[in-house]
Amino acid sequence: MQFNFQNPTRINFGAGKLSELGTEAGTYGKKALLVTGGGSVKRNGTFDRALESLKAAGVSAVECAGVEPNPRLSTVLRGAQIARDEGCDVVVALGGGSTMDAAKAMAAMVFYEGEPWDMFFSSEGTFIPPTKALPIITVPTLAATGSEMNNGAVITNEETTEKSFVNAPVLFPKVAIVDPELTVTVPKDQTAYGVCDLITHVTEGYFNGVDGTPLQDRFAEGVIQTAMEWGPKAVADGNDLEARAQVQWASVVALNGWVQVGTSAGYPVHMIEHTLSAHHDVAHAAGLAVVNPSWMRFAARKRPERFARFAERVLGVERNGKTDEDAAREGIDRFEAFLRSIGCPTHLSELGIGDELIERYAEDTLRIINDGKGNLPARPPMSREDIIEVLRGAL
Ligand code: NZQ
Ligand code: ZN
Fold first, then answer.
1. Can you tell me the distance from the alpha carbon of 293 to that of 342, in angstroms, rounded to the nearest whole number?
2. Do domains 10-183 and 188-393 have the same CATH topology?
C-alpha cells in the first residue's frame, strides 16, 4: 500500500449550515456565479435563502440556471461564458451532483485554453487536465455523489454521446456546505438512487482494490452498513432529518477519498454505467443498481472469498459450512434484494434498455478508459466480452 493523499476541502456540516454560505463565499470574492439545476431549489426555497445569505455578506450573484441531470458540455461552456462576461470571482454550486459537477467544470473552463472536451479523461484521445479554476463552493441538495468534497466532475459530450470524468487538484471545492435540511424535498426515487450511488462508490474500492488494506475494508463496510441502516428510513420518510443527515454524511465520506485511499482501485461499474447514461440519459445510480449486482456475480467467480467476506460482514450471511461460492452468491442476492426494497431497478429492461447496442456500450466504455491492453481497469481486468457478459446478465 502506497499513497500521497490530501483533501483540502473544508466541510461545514449540519442542519441550518446554509446560512454560512455568504460568509464563506465572501472570503473568495464579491461576485458569485450561482449554478443551479432544473428548478428544485427555486420551488423549495433554498435558492432564496442562499441569495439572502450571500447578500448579507455583500456578495452579489449571477445565476446560471438549467443544469440538466447528466450535465452537458454545452452547459459547462455556457456557464463559463457567463462567469467570464460578468467577471465572477467565485463559483457556488447549489444542487445535486450534476449541478456541482457542471459548476466545477465551469470554474476551470473559464481559464481553459485547449479544446473543451480535452479537459475530460480519454484513454484513446487527448486529455489535458485543467490547472487553474475559480474558487468553488458546493452546496449539495441531494445526498449521492460526494462531488461536494472531491476533485472530480463527470460531463456528457452530447455531440459524441460520450460521458467522461476529470479529476484535478484545482477542482477541489474550497468549502462544502452540507446541510441535510436541503435534502428533505428529494423524491423517494432520487433518495434511493443516492443511497445506491454512495454504496457503489465504496464497493468499487472494496472489490477492485489491492490486497492489504484492512482499515479501508473496515471503513467501507461501515459506510455500507450505515447506508443500509439509514437509507431505507430516508426513503420511507423524507422529512426524517436524522436519517437524511446520516445518509448525507455517509455519501460525503464514501467519495472524499478517505475510504479508497491506497486501494488503487478501478471503477468498472461506474465506467460501464456512464456509457449507459450517455446513451439513454438514465439517472446515474439507477444504472449502477442494474450493473453492480451483475458485475458482482461476474467478479465473484474469480475471487469468491472476497465476496464471501462481504456477504458475512456486511449482509449478515451465516456461513454454517457454506463454500465461499455459496456465501458469495447469497450475499449478492441479498444486496440486490436490498436495492429493490428501496425502489431501485435491477434490470436494464426497467430502464427501457434492450440488447441492441450492448457491443457498442462495451466498445464506448473501453474507448473512454482502458489499461493499454484493451481491458477496463478492474479486478479482474475486463475485456470487451466481459463487459458484454455483465450487461447481458443485467438484461
Ligand atoms: O435539477 P433539479 O431541478 O435541481 O432537480 C434534481 C434532478 O432532477 C433533483 N433534485 C436535486 N436536489 C433536490 C432535487 N429535487 C428535490 N429536492 C432537492 N433538494 O434530483 C434530480 C437528480 O439530480 P442530479 O444532480 O442529476 O443527481 P445526482 O446528485 O445523483 O448526480 C448525478 C450526476 O453526478 C455524476 C453522475 O454521473 C451524474 O451525472 N457523478 C459525479 C461524481 C463526482 N463528481 O464525484 C461521482 C458519481 O459517481 C457520479 O458519476
Ligand atoms: Zn457514482
1. 15
2. no
Segments of 6-71 assigned E as strands: 10-13, 31-36, 60-64
Positive or negative CA dihedral for 37, 43, 45, 48? positive
Q: What pLDDT score was predicted for residue 166?
A: 98
Indicate whether residue 140 lines ligand 1 (CB < 6 A): no
The ligand with the least distance to the CA atom of 144 is 1
Give per-residue pLDDT as tens, 313-341.
999 999 999 999 999 999 999 999 999 99
The count of other CB atoms within 10 Å of the CB of residue 74 is: 15
The tens digit of pLDDT for each residue in 295-315 reads 999 999 999 999 999 999 999
Residue 142 pLDDT: 98
Calculate how far, in angstroms, residue 156's C-alpha sits from the geometric centre of ligand 2. Answer: 14
Helix (H, G, I), strand (E, B) or coil at 30: coil
Query: 239: helix, coil or strand?
Result: coil
Residue 276: what pLDDT? 98
Question: Could you tell me the three cell numbers for 288?
Answer: 449502477
Residue 167 CB: number of other CB atoms within 10 A? 13
> Domain locations in the chain?
10-183, 188-393
Ligand 1 pocket, 144 CB below 6 A? Answer: yes
What pLDDT does residue 285 have? 98
Quote the pLDDT of residue 157. Answer: 98
pTM assigned to the model: 0.98
pLDDT digits (tens, 9 = 90+) for 22-79: 999 999 999 999 999 999 999 999 999 999 999 999 999 999 999 999 999 999 999 9
Cβ neighbours, 10 Å, residue 239:
9
CA atoms of 383 and 235, how far apart (whole Å) = 37
- Which atom in ligand 1 lies closest to the alpha carbon of residue 150? 45
Rounded distance between C-alpha atoms, residue 166 and residue 151, angstroms = 8
By the 8 A CB rule, do 239 and 267 touch? Answer: no
Q: What architecture (CATH level 2) is domain 188-393?
A: Up-down Bundle (1.20)
- CATH architecture, domain defined by 10-183: 3-Layer(aba) Sandwich (3.40)
How far, in whole angstroms, is CA 313 from its chain's centroid?
Answer: 24
